[in-house]
Amino acid sequence: MIRTELKRGTAELAVLSVLENGPLHGYEIGRSIGERSGGALHYTLAALYPLLYRMEHRGWLRADWKTGDNGKRRRCYRLTQRGRRMLKPMRAEWTDLFRALRRVAKVSHA
Amino acid sequence: MPDWRTYVQEHLGLVSDLRASQKEIVSELAGHLEERYEALLASGIPQAEAERLTWETVGRWEDLRNEIVFAKEGFVQNRVKQLWIPGLVTFVGSAGLLAVLEYEGVRPLVFYPSGRSPMSHPYDSSAIVLNVPWLVSLLVIGALGAFLSRRARATGLATHISSAFPALIMAVVIALVFAGGLFLSWSVSQQVKELGLLAAGFNMVVMPGVALLAGDLLLQCALRRHTTSH
Asked: d(Cα B132, Cα B106) in Å, to the nearest integer?
């Protein structure tokens, strides 16, 4: 299990990455991150939604209410151009971090 | 099925008279919990256990409440930086430039309606006044407003409003004058005639607004080209 402090730093990249393939509502974002990370990353509502609101107000995400196939209205988030532009440098930053950790602490990634 | 809306509303401490933004937050969080609960039920988990597990996905309500309030305060600060400060800069800049140009004796082109001659008053209220140097300088002012707004991470509408802020202020002033005229029992046609409302709207709202937004547009194009080249 990954500690909360560590997860917090990864959340922005995780959200941007799962939205790269198309819009999702909050629950789907959380579920998608959980599935893709093999259950290692899962965020509570208290962690996820304030983050989504902040990212929306930074202009990285845009949210619109949409009615799904089941007739329920959900607020769907999608990447803006600015959000999409953030992905590349953010990925590079994390890659650098892992490389540095590997050298310092013998940390390896799968 | 639990009433997730009421559940969220109560736990966020939002009991009555919700603002539109608060209603949206409640609906969104309730929707999330509902999805989670239904997914758990669909996977064969009994109701009571599904409810407990759904409850667990919230984390600490206190954190959620505080984080949302914190985020909201942040939004207010953002609005000041993204909208009000750039808007004030464009307003002061455009008014200041107009004053400087008039002080320097730059005279605008004035087009009178057909069949009317120039009056002793500086401008006939129904004349179209074209202050070319001012309108050109508004391109820069509009671009500056958009730049300041974008620098504060604003997008879309906020940047356009920041750019066109002086024109929007004038639109409000003209609308108030119009409403004041109606209050004083003037007829609409009398107002249009006496105040030159159409000409005023064109001179003080449409033309400056177009120039300011053109500045905004030029900046956006320049930034897009800059981003593409990198």
From this structure: 10
